[in-house]
Amino acid sequence: MSSPCTLTFRRKRVVVSNKVQVPLKRMCSDKITLKFECSPLEALPLDILIKVVCGVEHEDLHRLFHVSKTIREAALVAKDLHFEYSTPRNNTFALYNPFDLDGNGLDEIEAPNKQLKKCKSRLSGGNLSLTLFPSMDEGDY
Amino acid sequence: MTQLDRLSVYHWLNAWCIKPVGGALVRQEPEYILLALMGSPLKKIMLCSSEKEIFSVEEQVMVQHSVIINNMIEDGSYNHEESKIPLDCVDSKTLKKVIDYCTHHTHHHNDNQEDLEAWDAQFLNVDSNGLYDLLMAANYLEIRNLLDLIYGTIKNMIKGKKIDEIRRIFNIKDHGFTPEEEEQNRKEYPHFY
What we know:
Chain A: It comes from Arachis hypogaea. Chain A: This is F-box domain-containing protein. The structure holds 2 protein chains of 2 kinds. By secondary structure, chain A is of the alpha+beta class. In chain A, about 20% of the residues lie in helices and about 15% in strands. In chain A, the strands form 2 sheets. Chain A has a two-stranded antiparallel sheet with strand order 1-2. In chain A, strand 3 (about 25-30) and strand 4 (about 30-35) form a beta hairpin. In chain A, helix 1 crosses helix 3. Chain B is mainly alpha-helical. Chain B has 2 domains: about 5-40, no CATH class; about 45-160, Potassium Channel Kv1.1, Chain A (2-Layer Sandwich). Chain B has helices at about 5-15, 30-40, 60-65, 65-75, 90-105, 115-125, 130-140, 145-160, 165-170, 180-190, and strands at about 20, 25, 45-50, 55-60, 85. In chain B, the strands form 2 sheets. Chain B has a 3-stranded mixed beta sheet. In chain B, strands 1-2 form a two-stranded antiparallel ribbon. In chain B, helix 3 crosses helix 5 and helix 5 (about 90-105) packs across helix 7 (about 130-140). Chain B is elongated and about 70 Å long. The interface between A and B is large, with 38 and 38 residues.
């Protein structure tokens, strides 16, 4: 980032600095968080950080919940806005929702329309015959 | 074309899509022919960085890439003779990089994908703060392809990495969790760390 300056991005004002000694204020969801060391990723305005998180893959999203509180905040919004409506690449297992604040309980992170390998075969014992003209007697089924 | 100095000749040739390459004249970028017929393809606009440095850049280059600048030109709020576009959020070093990106992608959009990707990789070979400066500038100017490029780069920096490594890469020294929360998280999801 450039030397201490105030930047305005779409109504969010961010003061950034490279210097470790200068406290960094960040407007974030109506809270001001004082940080004394600057991670350039966390210094991004929240709306940009959310878009960055939207770009990661589903598997990485869960780790991001635990990287830091700032990133968790962005990851939660990204999860609601983006990940709920997109198909993960790798979907061989269901993950528990690691962040359970709103009491929804376990969340399976799966694509809503993804074909699950749960279909039971309707075939039984290899009998593939099909009655074309069923008799009046329903006991056949 | 009134002045036959070398620069004008170069621009004229460029506009007509004929470029001197290694002594030969090579035709490329046919769209320039159409633009030359329609009007000057080399109309310039002035961009002013936060450090009050002025950058002159081809109008069509910025109009093609930046939604913000395109809107300014279209709605007539930019006067070519007098105005410069102040970009108080973008410093000179970053603005120069952004202009390089847009210019390259305008003039080389017919290049094959591999060459463009190689150029992009080289372009993003900046120090870590430079990457975020570019991201904020691209967001401010609404340059979609540069934004996507940077999002993809950050995504690859995160992909598959454990939490401790992500913190190291992005210099996150204060994660904000209480020691109890951190310990609980590590117990519950040891494979994440």
